[in-house]
Amino acid sequence: MSTQSNDASTLTADRPAPDTSRETRPFFWSVRRELWENRSISVAPLVVTAVVLFASLISVMSLPLRLQRIDDPAKLDAAMVRPFAMAPAPIMLATFIIGVFFCIDTLYGERRDRSILFWKSMPVSDRTTVLSKASIPFVVLPVIAFVLSVVTQLTMLVVSVPFFLAGDLSLVTLWTELGFLQGLVIMIYGLAVHVLWYAPIYGWLMVVSAWARRAPLLWAVLPLLAISAAERIVFDSWHFMNMLHYRVGGALKEAFAFKPGADGNIDRLSQLEPANFLTRPGLWIGLLFAAAFLAIAVRLRRYREPI
Amino acid sequence: MICVEARGLRKTYGTTIAVDGVDLLVEEGRILGLIGPNGAGKTTALNAMLGLIPYQGELKVLGRDPWTERDRLVRDVAYIADVAVLPRWIRVSQVLDYVGGVHPRFDRAKAEGFLAKTDIKRTSRVRELSKGMVTQLHLALVMAVDAKLLVLDEPTIGLDILYRKRFYDSLLNDYFDHSRTIVVTTHQVEEIQDVLTDVMFIRRGRIVFDSNMEAFESRYVEVMVRPDHLAAARALSPIHERQVFGRSILLFDRVDRQQLASLGEVRTPSIADLFVAVMSDAAGSTRGDNA
Hints:
The complex is a heterodimer. Chain A is built from 13 helices and no strands. By secondary structure, chain A is an all-alpha fold. In chain B, the strands form 3 sheets. Chain B has a 6-stranded mixed sheet, sandwiched between helices. A 4-stranded antiparallel sheet of chain B has the order 11-12-10-13. The interface between A and B is large, with 34 and 37 residues.
């Protein structure tokens, strides 16, 4: 990085106008500094991956033995791929949780430790700062989740080869049943759905983080519950609560089709319903709210002082 | 060129008035000392100039509105706030990388040069550094920025006297070049007396004294009055009187030096002397005005 900027400085030094100066990349460095500060963004998913990998490898090693006890061939195939298909779930869940805690703390933490005064002394606009912070749950964490999930599955596949051969199991069946490439598409789709659908939630958390003087997590949750309770008491209805419920649970319902009577797994491309998802008003209204929340967070960061 | 211009600058926190109608004009190439007791509004005034807080009144810094144009303004303004604000988790090497990555006028080699004179290790985190080291690090970052305006709010707090001396020397010799402007607040008035070109006293959110140093030196005279001349000296309306070792020291504003020399030992007062005089005068005793 530094060599690049040095080159830029020699280039600009040749220009006649003395006012031009080194090229800077405020957004890039703002994201990097978030990764420096919040090492949980990279370390925690790695730890979860390590645990998942460890458990999955044990499961893969004992898989041939366990499969011998299953008589029903239909159940056999499902049991064979289950450890592989399950592996990404905890990793993704970990990144979602990290994203939530990151958003609720980030604009609050910089005011609490007064470092906001240092960040504001740098020529980085409030918009760049807020957007670079938003890029953590919207871009960085999903990419980390995807890469770690793929690495986990590949490692499991490689390790399982000798055990499958020794247990006289078909690797071809495993490969076709698992549908690895299909799985990649499903993962990317799932992560995209997650980001788009939950964007307003992350945005709301950042607004509260920029606004609250203390206990941002409580401020993020309690007012919503209070509004629901007030609505229940005054109008005897649950519209607000239903809306929240739809926001939290709607992504799965709108973006995927579940096999009737099946176990809730999503392992077929035909189960993805992007057309339905993209035509839901709930998605677009949510994105509008997300944009509004980010704009409010930018505004608030300008006004807020150290706590 | 006018560097900072404020008219009727006001800032209130609830019912507390932090800055109460300040008018300010700082021209390019000046070194202004803003001096006042704790809670006088120095930091609030500086924060307003840096676009950190909203305010009422008119304020232009380097021709820009600090509130709406903070990110563009701070390309040309370097500043240190009055408390350690460097994030505690950051490593020295990281903060150098970061500032180099976002600040177009940051000269990393220069910052490394300043750091080479300290015991600060590149791999240390800010939380592992002593208070003085954090200040040294922050000063190194700020002085390596080729800024038009440098704002220092209590810059040498927590530093030992040797480093303070070196800092002000380096500020004058390495940094200041007459196209830059410096605004500094401090409690250690004596140390910056020789550095300043202008001085301002601020009290309860108001500017109570404003002068450049040349005028200051020609205007004010302090006389250690011989006891037999005390009545004659008091008749000349001193603005302040204090006792040292049983002798009366009287401070005069715009009184002929020759005339005073006949009353006792004459010398130019320090800023600290005048500060005490002006502050205690404003505190209630208006003897100077009545006499």
